[in-house]
Specification:
mainly alpha; elongated; 125 residues
């Protein structure tokens, strides 16, 4: 068997892997490669073993920290179109710049690139 125990897989996943493995072997793929490909396919389609306990992996501390900082950033929401004093024009998305340019009625905005929008908005201020 390829690496690891297959105890965490459901009966359905195990049957599926067997069928996939058999079809690869019928096509002339060596047994070991066919088995590895079959389990890779099952993992790709279902995300691995589905029985209780999962992979045994938990989120790392850095992943938990990253998730917390993302949610903190989302908490600083403002109303659409409202200027954000904590952000420079260069750090805003092109869509945000387009919205500001539209509200200031800057002509030619639809064909402008991001930097051109920034320059036009600075000039309009």
């Amino acid at each position: 068997m390829p690496r690891g125990s297959k105890d965490k897989y459901t009966e359905k996943q195990q049957r599926k892997a067997e069928h996939i493995e058999e079809s690869y072997e019928e096509k002339g793929v060596p047994e070991k490669d066919a088995e590895a490909r079959a389990w890779a396919t099952v993992n790709k389609q279902s995300g691995g073993g589905n029985r209780k306990g999962g992979s045994g992996q938990t989120k790392s501390e850095s992943a938990k920290h990253r998730d917390a900082s993302q949610s903190a950033r989302r908490a600083v929401k403002t109303k659409r179109g409202e200027p954000r004093p904590d952000r420079s024009l260069e750090s805003e998305t092109k869509e945000e710049l387009m919205r500001k340019a539209r509200s200031r009625n800057i002509s030619g905005r639809s064909s402008m690139r991001k930097q051109e929008l920034v320059d036009a908005l600075k000039k309009a201020s």
